[in-house]
Amino acid sequence: MNTDTLLPVRLDPLKWLPTLVLALALSGCASAPSLIDRHFGLAVQRAQAQQTQPSPLRASSAPVADTDGVSADAAVARYQQSFQAPAALSPVINVGFGTPKAP
Fold this sequence. Notes:
Layout: H1 13-29, H2 35-38, H3 42-51, H4 69-81
């Protein structure tokens, strides 16, 4: 029997340590989600559902009875015209405020 082959194998940590770290890191991805992770985002979904009222007009195509077409058209026209020119600045009365007093 050859005694050279029975010598203990010397492990180099620089070879197996990165593999061990990678295996441990990937094992974290394989675990089942926790209770907190399973309900992640549920609070936001519930808040949105509570703050959103379903429209009763969604099912019907009946016109809205609150506003007639002429006044709605005028309101939309005024709204669009408000972006064409900047609003006029109102005069500021600033007499004697923030100025140093004469000696």
